[in-house]
Amino acid sequence: MLIQGRSLAKTYRLGQVDVAALRGVDVDVRPGEFVAITGPSGSGKSTLMHILGCLDTPTSGSYRLDGEDVSGLTGKRLAQVRNRKVGFVFQTFNLMPRLSVEENVALPLKYRGGIARGERRARALRLLERLGLAERVGHRPDELSGGERQRVAIARALVGEPAILMADEPTGNLDSASGAEVMRTFAELHGAGHTIVLVTHDPNVAARAERVIQMSDGRVV
Mind listing the domains of the chain with CATH numbers? Predict the structure, then answer.
């Protein structure tokens, strides 16, 4: 099992009040699956993704990622697991505006360290060609369409060869045509064997996954 969460709970302290964002969630994801997590605002879907992606830790419960128990990790060690195991795609792209497309894609490898510049560039160029962006390598993000920027973000997420690709509302800032283009890219990646966990409030986007986890009030329903 690539992802195995048991009784995952997350409670936030807001002033004098404890707010339960997750309430004892069990979740499994097998290698090669394409899973959508959906539900209304406040359902806990983003909190769950943050825990599964090692951006946060549960208040209680256990979480194993690719065989490693990461539920108790914090700080630098959690960041190392995240950098090695997880690739992220965000609604707002999060590209560096002053860097070229190629430089944006190669950036995670620079942070990882130990990979020569030539190898970083070669990996970035291979992914950009694969995603139909070979003619955009020298452009900056503001010279691209929304769909192209999201495909650059997908390439950046994949460049470190992560165990899992996580996408948080990846079509949320796109028009319908660009959103469909991005979802075709995810379908192709899934067909090539990549494991994808996608968070969305859009039922049409969720329907593109092979399995849907529906959440409400911090629980899987």
Answer: 31-54+77-220 (3.40.50.300)
